[in-house]
Amino acid sequence: MSELETLLPILHALSSSSITEPNAPMAVALQEANDLHTVVQTADTWERLLKVGVDPKLLDTLPIAVTAARQAQSRWVVVRDRSKEQAQREREQAAMELRADVVAACRWNLRDDPKALAVVDAVMQGEGIVDLIQDLQDLAALVAEHEAGFDADDTFDASAQAEAARSTAEELSAGLSESRTPGDHEAAKDLRDRAYSHLATLVANVREAGRYAFRKDPRRAAAFGSAYVRRIKARSRRRTAERTEPEVAAEPAASAGL
Hints:
By secondary structure, the chain is mainly alpha-helical.
């Protein structure tokens, strides 16, 4: 049973008033939820959260909600495509390009790690769509496990690429299933929105607890914010500043006698 199927009773029980559409790209929401799960497992963070009353089950609940939301998003993406065969071909092409990019980054950044390179070599052995799906999942796990190894490479966002690999694998898998069992657009979107809303609530609760637990430590409290929201706000402030910046008066023309 998939994570999405496991959560179905919870998702269907959500009230309509609590269901919202994503307020950020789903890839960003999933990535930030994954990053948050990593944050709560560092140093004494989890112990501090438990002390302020966070549900002990949350550490296990969050990754399940992330995977369920990713699966629901993938199902909806596949169902909404009108030309499904063409869309699946395009997904396969994009997946192969993504695999090539991640493999290249792994070979370079993890070049001194024989075990990691062995995983990369194994990834390149298979053929076909099923192997491609597994390759992306394996690469996502490899990148996540060695995320610090990519820190020096400014051209490769390890966290974002790992999420891209996971999401693409889910979309490919959903595309195969959809070709055999056509789905309903509205039902798929509703389920996606429910899965996202459930995840968003968990993320919001963890962030609120983290900001409270580390309210006297601004640096660690900042880890419980959204980098995406910070970028949006910073961009908005820049645009506001540009609109309100006073125009510089033109200097008077020099007289002919000077």
